[in-house]
Specification:
By secondary structure, the chain is mainly alpha-helical. It contains 20 helices and 12 strands. The strands form 6 sheets. A two-stranded antiparallel ribbon has the order 1-5. The chain has a two-stranded antiparallel ribbon with strand order 2-3. The protein has a two-stranded antiparallel sheet with strand order 4-10. A hairpin with a 4-residue loop joins strand 7 and strand 8. The two termini are 46 Å apart. Its main location: membrane.
């Protein structure tokens, strides 16, 4: 009894630290109950792990692309606008994951410690055992996910050593030692891998109802579990919770980061590891042939989205948030002004130039047939799918958007505060059937992926090329070349010439690396990857963001915003508040 009173006090203590609540030591309201109550009220107990789900960073778009060479913000008060302009600091970090992830881990640790004490059913010890296994498996998988986000945001070099974060495997209380040093990056990664393995040991690959008793896993069948028992715990009602497939994908994401140039020092994760982890997910998706044919437009596949139900995913999406109701908020933020939007994210000319010609050749290649006086002709079809440029259509009436300086509308470059600064608007992610006209506003259902399969295929391509070269397959039946070929064919690139450019680089590891990175840039644009990719690749962060000014039918590339990042900023900082509180913590070099 004393132990559980202590745990609920710890919960209250950490809640106060997070919220600044001044009522911590006031008398509790009558409906507040201690943690012991949860043992007979499973919904109350599951609130611990629900807190973990609620803190997942990819529960909404961050648009940190606006701090990269892919996009700028048209709002000078935007956090990423200021960050890219030199205001990123240890006490001013829009990408801080320290407090959020550590709080989530605290709740998950309590759930892991207490799961087996909870009565999820009425006098059914077998079902209680199965529920406890599932929830502990979810908690381990989520703990690995939060470790990944902590390492991505705060891992870095300190005193010549690559450090990770503090490893917290048990709930902290008032007697815990908080002044703990950061573990090494390698130790942190091994903790992540161990948590993924624990999740895989406890969770099914997917949550599906089984048809007969023989499909009950042996460990539960030996205890007398029936098909109905299994379906009650691990059936389709649990879809979108942490599963074995999701945990496997998280391991591949983390391994790609760890194998990359900025994180590979003193780290045992190899490119081969990352490729093998990604292949495990791809094999569950029927290999290269499983790449979704509608994956390019996953955000606007109206029939597919509107018919989703029962936690089912579209073929492109491995894990997603709940659908929610209809909304027009995303479009209100990003539609062009003539469509009653605020045009917030402005793609750069840098990104536009990354889209090759329709024949697959980069614009700088002599065989691209690129015409700077007609720059949008014969281009990769993804350009028009992802970006609104001069002459594109947008909105529910497919209105032509004129971004020219002399175009006569507020969609023109730098016309009003909500106009584009680059000559481009974002189209990707938005549903063009949303109407923002004040006299007839309507919203639509949106789908928000946490993990897309295309990302996993690109992880494999990048890691496999580094491990075995463009056409090497390792222990798998497909290569980096095979994956990139499938992705480009789906996009409609190089269809008329057999993708001659891809064929020309299939024997060149360095050229294939650049192509893979460019395909990743295009396919995942505006989804929050570019910021982290540039850093893990240890690439130049200061490339000036450029735009296209059109006037008198003449095209002029212009500089829009300088990027102010020092070399140490390939790693993010540990929050200054933590450094000031705890002497054992070491800050990353340069911060």
């Amino acid at each position: 009894m004393k132990k559980y009173r202590h745990i609920i006090f710890v919960l209250a203590f950490f809640s106060a630290l997070l919220t600044g609540c001044v009522d911590l030591f006031e008398p509790a309201i009558q409906n507040n109950r201690d943690l012991e109550s949860s043992y007979n009220e499973p919904r109350f107990a599951q609130g611990l792990i629900i807190n973990g789900y609620a803190r997942i960073p990819r529960n909404g778009w961050s648009f940190n692309d606006m701090a990269t060479d892919d996009a700028v913000s048209n709002n000078e008060n935007n956090a990423f606008f200021n960050m890219a302009g030199g205001q990123w600091a240890a006490d001013n970090n829009p990408l801080n994951q320290w407090a959020n992830s550590q709080a989530a881990i605290q709740y998950l640790n309590i759930m892991i410690e207490t799961a087996e004490e909870v009565s999820f059913t009425v006098d059914n010890d077998l079902l209680d055992r199965m529920f406890a296994d599932r929830i502990k498996g979810e908690a381990y998988g989520l703990r690995a996910l939060f470790m990944f986000h902590l390492l991505q945001a705060h891992g870095g070099m300190a005193g010549g050593e690559l450090l990770g974060v503090q490893i917290l495997n048990e709930p902290q209380d008032l007697t815990s030692e908080f002044n703990m040093p950061r573990s090494t990056f390698e130790e942190s990664m091994q903790q992540l891998y161990a948590d993924v393995q624990r999740a895989l040991d406890l969770l099914p690959t997917d949550y599906n109802n089984i048809a007969n008793e023989s499909m009950v896993p042996e460990k539960y069948r030996a205890l007398g579990a029936s098909r109905n028992d299994y379906n009650r715990v691990f059936g389709e009602d649990a879809r979108q919770l942490m599963s074995g497939r999701i945990a496997t994908a998280i391991r591949a994401q983390a391994a790609l980061m760890a194998a990359s140039p900025a994180f590979s020092q003193g780290n045992t994760t190899t490119w081969e590891d990352a490729a093998n982890f990604a292949a495990q997910v791809i094999n569950l998706n029927n290999g290269v042939s499983g790449l979704s044919p509608t994956g390019l437009t996953w955000y606007s596949n109206v029939a597919e989205i509107n018919n989703l139900g029962g936690g089912v995913n579209p073929s492109e999406i491995l894990w997603r948030t709940a659908l929610g109701g209809t909304s027009s908020n995303l479009e209100a933020a990003h539609f062009p002004p003539t469509q009653f939007g605020n045009g917030l994210l402005n793609p750069t000319q840098n990104l536009v130039d990354a889209f090759p010609s329709a024949n697959g050749y980069p614009l700088t290649h002599p065989l691209s047939n690129y015409d700077p006086n007609n720059p949008y002709a014969n281009r990769d079809p993804r350009l028009n799918q992802f970006i609104i440029r001069n002459g594109s259509t947008a909105g529910p009436t497919s209105q032509v958007i004129n971004t020219a300086a002399d175009g006569g509308t507020n969609d023109g470059i730098n016309r009003v505060e909500v106009s584009t600064r680059t000559g481009y608007y974002m189209r990707k992610l938005l549903r063009q059937d949303v109407n923002l006209n004040p006299v007839s506003v309507n919203g639509q259902v949106h789908i928000m992926p946490r993990i897309r399969y295309t990302e996993i295929y690109l992880i494999y391509a990048e890691a496999a090329n580094e491990a075995w070269g463009p056409t090497g397959t390792g222990a798998h039946g497909y290569s980096a070349y095979d994956v990139i070929k499938a992705i480009r064919q789906r996009a409609g690139v190089g269809l008329g010439n057999g993708d001659a450019y891809l064929e020309s680089v299939r024997g060149d590891k360095d050229a294939m690396r650049e192509l893979i990175r460019n395909e990743r840039r295009i396919e995942l644009c505006f989804e929050g990857f570019r910021f982290w990719d540039l850093r893990r690749w240890d690439k130049d962060l200061t490339e000036t963001a450029r735009g296209m000014r059109i006037q008198n039918n003449s095209f002029q590339v212009i500089d829009v915003q300088n990027r102010v990042f020092d070399s140490h900023m390939k790693y993010g900082p540990v929050p200054l508040s933590e450094i000031l509180k705890y002497s054992a913590l070491r800050q990353n070099t340069g911060w």
